[in-house]
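JOB MANIFEST
job_type = single_chain_structure
chain_count = 1
residues = 502
[input]
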Amino acid sequence: MSFKVHIKTYGCQMNERDSEMIAVLLQHHGYALAERESQADAVIVNTCSVRAKAEDKAIGKLRMLISARQEHPDRIVGVVGCMVQRLKDDLFRQVPGLDFAVGTHVLARVPAILAAVLAQKLSDPGYAGGFADSPSRSAMAERGVRAHTAGRAGLPGVVPISRKAGTQPGHRPILDVASADDPYDGHTHLPGEISAFVNILFGCDRHCAYCVVPEVRGGEWSRPAKDVIEEVRQLVAQGVKEITLLGQSIMAYGRQTHVWETTDRSPRGFTEPLPRLLEALNDIPGLYRLRFTSGHPCGCTAELARAFAELPAVCEHLHLPLQSASDRILQLMNRGYTAADYRAAVRRLQEAMPRIVLTTDVIVGFPTETPEEFDMTRAFLEEIGFDNVYIFKYNPRPGTPAAQWSDDVSAKEKLRRNHALLEDQGKRSQAFHQAFTGQACEVLVEGPSLRNEARWAGRTRHNILAVFEAVPGLKAGDLVTLRVAQATAQALYGTIERKTAG
């Protein structure tokens, strides 16, 4: 019986990719992954700090895990990610009993930190862990002692945390994320997946007035193009059909860091770093779909629009955050564009790729936002015709410029604005999806539907959920043609006409 670890993830696709990397590194160090928390000897919570609600959920979850030690007295509980980066040692005050905390820059060291905590527990005569009879216990203990010693002597930033009221005896290691950066490991993907996330840009230099990302993720740096291309080649060779490139502000890829060799040439004459990367990945045999997120209007250049039009693998979908259509609010937010700039970016994309589908983010109730400025945003959303809008009620994040301003839009008014946009978008999505009725769409099959296992589900190239009856021989990863029979605001429903690839 092996030592099992369960990872609970909150937050964005970047966090999902971080959790996958941690999971594979743990496996490389001899740990097993537990699908369910109840099976785990250790639980690691990967956290998000973008909104207060995300941090509240994570802290609540950690406290529940600590409380559950009455039933699982020897379970290790750790926390990683953005919330660690922001709160640092204060996490141990807010969640007494935590075993370790690791921030965003050094996630590759999670196995060593876990081994150090495990070594402490194994050296405790009273320890009676659920893996006590494991044949690998002595190896685990030896590895743990080595990692613990290395942590004290050679791993920068592993520091003892003083015992506080309510904590268990012993030190609580936290990795000070400012101390060192670990390289991104492109070999840390779980096998058997049909879609994969690939990081190409880390950090953010935009410093929007409401956002903690530059604090918790650091400054921008881009991976060399050759490393990204090699990672994607390996994933495709393993059966991956769809790649989503990740970056906090992905269109800044290659603008701060030199990512191409001087001998590299673009067959289609692209000169900008991101379109050149999309071209190189598009030409990898067996890669059927290519996406990237999140966008920014300033990156919607004529060359990027041409990439959408000329590269078959690049899907006709882009997530392009708006946040507000009031120029005054956009300036306060430090977004770096006006409503007219955003509109021009959309038109540039649509002229090159008329079938492109856009989704976006909007913040309601930003400090000093008037009802009239909210109405500007509401009208702009209708004008552009987004397929989906992710709406967030503004809440101040500590340390950001906006947190110093009066949060003067009432909670009731924020809720009203939120509901108004949700209602608008429900009607818009319904009408948008209804237009697909009778049409044939390419769908990448993901597997049985989460809500009804008798049906299967997948995604169109526009990233719209599609639900259908399974046919003999169907498997995850197949590309099929779906004839759409009906639609809702959430999904398309239809029947499979033929299999196109898989």
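[summary]
The first helix runs from residue 13 to 28.
The CA atoms of residues 275 and 304 lie 6 Å apart.
exit_status = 0
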